[in-house]
Each structure stands twice: as structure tokens, then as C-alpha cells.
Specification:
elongated; 11 strands; 120 residues; 0% helix; seven-stranded mixed sheet; single chain; mainly beta
Length: 120
């Protein structure tokens, strides 16, 4: 079994910053992509940022220049530093991790979600 635990959401004013973290634990042989998605009320879940095991990064156009994704392979964690937050960034943020377990099976796992609310 694999567990993903997220932390770091909250309420912040426009222009503020938040840092989200996600830690993976359990039956982990290796981790491939690690990413963050978000889902606003009435909207589909969308990619925010993803970082591969090799360190390649992709950001959604809506967050480029304001968001930085990073990972710590030794700790199996991924973080999302968000700056210059806007009300339209308000959403539930989910980490998503692709894990190869000790049976060499690859599965995607989702965190429980953390609420980010940006007030105007």
C-alpha cells in the first residue's frame, strides 16, 4: 500500500504565497512523475505542474512564473511553491504520484486534497 499525505493549504490574500507539500510512503520501489492538479468548484481537474524523475518540469500556462515545483527523491516528497496568488487559483489541490512498487507494478496515486483559497 502507498499513502500520500498533503499539507500546506489555507486562506491567503491576493498576492500572497503558499507552499504545498506531499509525502509518499509505503510500498515504493521507485517514483516516476510527481505532480500537482487542482479542481475548482464546477470545473474539471486540471494539471498545475509536473516534475519527472529526471527533473524535467512542465507548468500550466496559467501559473507559469508564479509557481515552482520541486521534489526530494530521498524523502519521496514533492512541493509546490505558489507566489503572487490570485482569486482564480482558489481550488482543491491534489498531488499525483506515479509509483513503481516492489512487484514492479506501476500505479498512479492521488493525495487527499488540500484547499487553497485566495481572497480578493
Amino acid at each position: 500500500q502507498v499513502q500520500l499525505v498533503e499539507s500546506g493549504g489555507g486562506l491567503v490574500q491576493t498576492g500572497g504565497s503558499l507552499r504545498l507539500s506531499c509525502a509518499a510512503s509505503g510500498n515504493i520501489f521507485s517514483i516516476n512523475d510527481m505532480g500537482w492538479y487542482r479542481q475548482a468548484p464546477g470545473k474539471q481537474r486540471e494539471l498545475v505542474a509536473v516534475i519527472t524523475s529526471g527533473g524535467s518540469i512542465n507548468y500550466a500556462d496559467s501559473v507559469k512564473g508564479r509557481v515552482t515545483i520541486s521534489r526530494d527523491n530521498a524523502k519521496n516528497t514533492v512541493a509546490l511553491q505558489m507566489n503572487s496568488l490570485k482569486p482564480e487559483d482558489t481550488a482543491v489541490y491534489y498531488c499525483n504520484v506515479e509509483i513503481r512498487d516492489w512487484l514492479l507494478l506501476v500505479r498512479q496515486y492521488w493525495g487527499q486534497g488540500t484547499q487553497v483559497t485566495v481572497s480578493s
